[in-house]
Specification:
Layout (H helix, E strand, L loop, with lengths): L5 H8 L43 E5 H7 L4 H5 L5 E3 L11 E3 L10 E5 L2 E2 L19 E7 L14 E7 L7 E9 L4 E11 L2 E12 L8 E13 L4 E14 L8 H6 L11 E18 L2 E18 L23 H5 L3 E21 L6 E21 L7 H7 L1 E23 L2 E21 L2 E2 L6 E17 L5 E12 L7 E3 L5 E3 L5 E12 L5 E18 L5 E19 H4 L5 E16 L20 E11 L3 E10 L28 E10 L6 E8 L7 E3 L5 E2 L4 E9 L1
Parallel strand pairs: 4-7
Antiparallel strand pairs: 1-6, 2-3, 4-5, 6-7, 8-9, 8-34, 9-10, 10-11, 11-12, 12-13, 13-14, 14-15, 15-16, 16-17, 17-18, 18-19, 18-20, 20-21, 21-24, 22-23, 24-25, 25-26, 26-27, 27-28, 28-29, 29-30, 30-31, 31-34, 32-33
């Protein structure tokens, strides 16, 4: 599966330019949004001229991240309208982020990126998020939900989240941070870098560990990242970033049956044996060629390789009268004692992908109209190897033993070749800006089933090539006829690739069937207003509507199927009032809040095969999501905040609802997820003239017990989490 990349890397270094960064930039910013260089800088996926963006977006900047001190990406984004995050594990190691009613399971319908590069295990072949950028390395988080998605892919049905990492410094700088909290939580971050006119280099080291939500669900992550920049001359810059990440946890993606949950919602009967191990290596190379002040030619090369192996001992939760059954020891109730005497299933998987993307950003006056244009192309390759081993022998708790002696149940190779073409032009017409765009996705997915359900496959039907080609236009318009105010509207075609990792069925020995799940296609509409016209008051509101032709839904047992037509409609609101600005005082009391009303999230067509009825509410699509915060800021370096977050009731997966084929009230997978409200707060203080910052942050301060998910059985939400720490800047 491994492929040499050094030849490709060398080729990249002699090619012009970088990509995945937004149009012509000529001025350096000081707030961490740009990479240092006098003539060249790198930002995220949002352009400099935010007033011309013809769609909704949100930015969580570095100042906000430092003042709020979020525990995880969940807390960092819970004040962003339109977002629903399901917290199955304490530190959100496997993010479940849904936007505008789309199922949040493993963030598969949201394009998750770091510096413009996808973060999934495999962006096309297995768009599952088992990693997100540690917030210690983040300069800002960008969330884009409108027609601006035309330039990026492959997931464009919901929205994009881009973690913009901190820039390489122009001079020596370093910082050390240590944190500690309840639930045995601790962590540290070290950053050291130096630079000058020649460029710079920076090293980040991150460690986090602690107990999980449930018993025996402890975790530890470690990451090293090296980032460098070399300014060859005034017009040519090289940027490189290398990363290594490791996760070791006891989280096995299994929930509880109803009887188990009632007895002790925080138990994990097989947690002492279960495990999830994940390593990720990444490389990003960029060459920026500033042709003129108005034109930038760029090329980017990226590479990521992930190995993940999970071991679990429970297959169907609650299968023994509301208690879970040991997967490889039939009829045996899952308990800590029984788990030590039984084997289970290992699911080792390997992922490797790389891509190259040349792109031209140019400001021009074609047709006598001032314009910014973007033209680009991306070539992307993926190789995926999926294996599974099952055995009841307790020795199978070792992956090495299972590979040598266990039942080899699954051996599947998936290869993806994708070509993406895109173009976009923003016309500036007085107070108006008009942005048409076009993206073409052409992908070929080859699936080779060598073994399924324990049997060697040799029939022609076990091999399949699925070729898809989609044209995805978009159009947005923005009006700035009122000071500091933008009225915007947009529409774009959305696309999410088919899921080959779930398209395997084995009906009998040697007859594996590889089905063709259709890709998801949507039409996304927006109409909105954002403004800070009034002194000290900023707000944005957006009305959105999305029609799906072939939404993909879970059948509840690790497979995804087409659920037909669906509709999502709602309104988002975000606002902030700074009384210090209104009354010209350094004592700033503020109120900030967000609210999403997803008044429609339903299937529009019956599907007897999947048990879907027209009008059914989509799974994990809460009607109301709200956040309200009260805070105080003072120039002496003191910040304090208290807030509440509310999520209304959510529906489970369709297949498990009453009257459906797999309805079982004792499984833990059937039944509504009730609403919940959580209280959180944070305080930070950096004395004037000091290099030290002290902070304390708390989440779910009321220690509310609540149900977070039913995807793999009942899973409780995180209990009270309080942590504090100190950061020292050299």
């Amino acid at each position: 599966m491994r492929k040499p990349i050094m030849g490709m890397a060398a080729m990249i270094l002699i090619m012009p330019a970088f990509a995945a960064e937004q149009a012509s930039q000529q001025e350096h910013t000081e707030n961490g949004e740009s990479v240092v260089a006098d003539k060249v800088n790198v930002t995220g996926i949002l352009p400099d001229r935010l007033e011309a963006v013809p769609g909704s977006f949100d930015v969580v900047d570095e100042k906000e991240l430092k003042s709020r001190q979020p525990f995880s990406v969940r807390e960092a984004l819970n004040q962003t309208p339109g977002i629903n995050i399901v917290g199955e594990d304490a530190f959100v190691l496997a993010p479940n982020i849904g936007i505008r009613g789309l199922n949040p399971r493993r963030t598969s319908r949201t394009l998750l990126m770091e510096d413009g590069v996808p973060l999934f295990l495999a962006p096309y072949g297995d768009p599952s998020a088992h990693y997100s950028t540690p917030l210690d390395r983040v300069s800002r988080i960008e969330v884009v939900k409108g027609s601006g998605q035309t330039l990026y892919g492959p997931q464009t049905v919901g929205g994009m989240i881009n973690f913009v990492t901190k820039p390489v410094p122009k001079e020596f700088q370093a910082s050390v941070m240590a944190v500690i909290g309840n639930n045995n939580f601790s962590g540290g971050h070290v950053n050291i870098g130096t630079g000058g006119d020649w460029g710079g280099v920076m090293l980040d080291a991150v460690n986090r560990k602690g107990d999980g939500i449930r018993d025996n669900h402890d975790f530890e992550i470690n990451e090293l990242t090296l980032k460098g920049q070399l300014n060859l001359d005034e017009r040519n810059t090289l940027i490189a970033k290398m990363g290594w990440y490791e996760e070791n946890s006891s989280i096995s993606e299994t929930g509880l049956g109803t009887v188990e949950y009632a007895e002790d919602k925080y138990q994990a009967p097989t947690g002492r044996q279960d495990s999830f191990n994940h390593t990720r290596k990444s490389l990003q190379l960029q060459h920026i060629f500033q042709i003129t002040d108005a034109a930038k030619l760029s090329t980017q090369f990226y590479y990521a390789q992930s190995d993940r192996a999970s071991f679990r001992q429970i297959n169907e939760p609650g299968s023994l009268g509301g208690r879970s059954e040991m997967d490889r020891c039939p009829g045996v109730v899952a308990t800590e004692t029984n788990s030590a005497a039984c084997g289970g299933r290992w699911r080792p998987r390997e992922y490797e992908y790389w891509g190259i993307e040349p792109r031209l950003d140019i400001s021009h006056n074609l047709f006598g109209i001032a314009s910014d244009a973007v033209i680009g192309f991306r070539y992307h390759k993926e190789d995926i190897q999926r294996d599974q081993y099952r055995d009841g022998n307790p020795l199978a708790q070792s992956l090495g033993w299972a590979k040598a002696n266990g039942s080899h149940r699954e051996d599947i190779a998936i290869n993806v070749e994708a070509k993406s073409y895109y173009a976009q032009n923003t016309f500036y017409l007085g107070d108006w800006s008009l942005t048409p765009g076009l993206r073409i996705e052409d992908l070929r997915i080859s699936t080779n089933v060598k073994r399924a359900e324990g049997a060697v496959q040799n029939n022609p039907e076990s091999e399949l090539t699925n070729h898809q080609s989609k044209v995805l236009p978009g159009l947005g318009v923005a009006w700035n006829g009122i000071a500091n105010t933008t009225l915007f509207a947009g529409v774009h075609k959305g696309f999410a690739p088919p899921r080959p990792d779930r398209d395997i069925e084995a009906s009998a020995a040697n007859t594996a069937v590889v089905s063709k799940t259709k890709p998801e296609e949507s039409t996304n509409w927006e109409l909105g207003l954002r403004s800070n016209y009034f002194k000290g008051i900023a707000f944005e509101t957006t009305l959105f509507h999305t029609d799906f032709d072939e939404i993909v839904v879970s059948n509840g047992f690790g497979r995804f199927v087409n659920g037909g037509k669906s509709q999502h409609s709602g309104i988002e609101f975000a606002g902030r009032v700074d009384f210090g600005t209104i009354y010209d005082t350094s004592h700033n009391f503020y109120i900030s809040g967000t609210y999403t009303n997803l008044f429609t999230a339903k299937f529009k067509k019956d599907s007897a095969a999947e048990g879907i009825h027209s009008g059914d509410r989509l799974a994990y699509a809460p009607k109301h999501v709200a956040s309200l915060n009260f805070g105080y800021e003072h120039p002496v370096g003191f910040n304090a905040r208290i807030g509440v977050d509310y999520v209304s009731a959510q529906s489970e997966d369709v297949i498990f609802r009453a009257g459906r084929a797999d309805y079982d009230p004792l499984s833990g997978m059937s039944g509504q997820i009730p609403s919940y409200t959580l209280v959180n707060a944070s305080v930070s203080y950096r004395p004037i003239g000091s290099k030290a910052t002290f902070f304390v942050s708390g989440h779910n301060l009321g220690d509310k017990e609540y149900l977070a998910s039913r995807v793999d059985g009942m899973a409780a939400g995180r209990q009270r989490q309080v942590f504090g720490g100190v950061r020292y800047d050299f």
